[in-house]
Amino acid sequence: MKIYILTFLSALILTFSGSSLLAQNGEIDRFKDTSLERKINEVRMFPNPTADYLSVKINNSTLEEASFTVHNIIGNVVDVPVEIMGKNEYRFRVKDLAPGYYLLAIRDDQGYFKETYKFLKR
Fold first, then answer.
1. Tens digit of pLDDT for each residue in 49-106?
2. Which residue, among 61, 66, 70, 53, has the nearest Cα to 116 in the 3D structure?
3. Buried (b) or exposed (e) across 44-62, using 16+ Cβ within 10 A?
4. Residue 13 — φ and ψ, nearest 5°?
5. How big is the CA angle at 98 (ends 93 and 100), to the nearest 5 degrees?
6. β-bridge pairing 82-86 and 89-93
7. Where is the signal peptide (predicted)?
8. What are the start-end ranges of the H helices in the chain?
9. In the 8-state DSSP scheme, what is residue 112?
10. What is the sign of the dihedral through the CA atoms of 8, 12, 13 and 18?
11. Measured CA distances, 98 to 68, 73, 93, 101, 120 (Å)
């Protein structure tokens, strides 16, 4: 009977001491600043909403060949001219589009990056 009580008390102590260690680690992790870490393939679109041109900049890019597709809100592909402004900087001429919401799909050739972003054409 004493062995069972000792085993139970040992398990109880390990359970509470383990949870306090987890709580301490949680406190440490809570103050970890993830905003200081650099994000890979961070896409910035500006100005949004736009009237004439939509600029796209991809920070910390790992994309070799990026392809772009613009869709209207119902999903139809819209032909929009793209200018390469610099490394990982692009400009889309949306001046001739009808006002409304559009989706910009960005993909790389390897298929590792597939993202879609919404913008408003005034």
1. 999 999 999 998 888 888 999 999 999 999 999 999 999 999 999 999 999 999 999 9
2. 70
3. ebeeeebeeebbbbbeebe
4. -65, -45
5. 100
6. antiparallel
7. 1-23
8. 2-30
9. S
10. positive
11. 19, 11, 12, 9, 10
Residue with tokens 């298929």: 111
CB atoms within 10 A of CB 94: 21
Distance from chain centroid for Cα 96 = 29
Looking at this protein, which amino acid is placed at residue 114?
Answer: K
Q: Name the β-bridge partners of 101.
A: 120
Q: How close are the terminal C-alpha atoms of the chain, in Å?
A: 80
Tokens of 107: 């993909």
* Helix/strand/coil for 39: coil
d(CA 61, CA 64): 8
Taking the C-alpha atoms of residue 89 and residue 56, their distance in angstroms, rounded to an integer, is 6
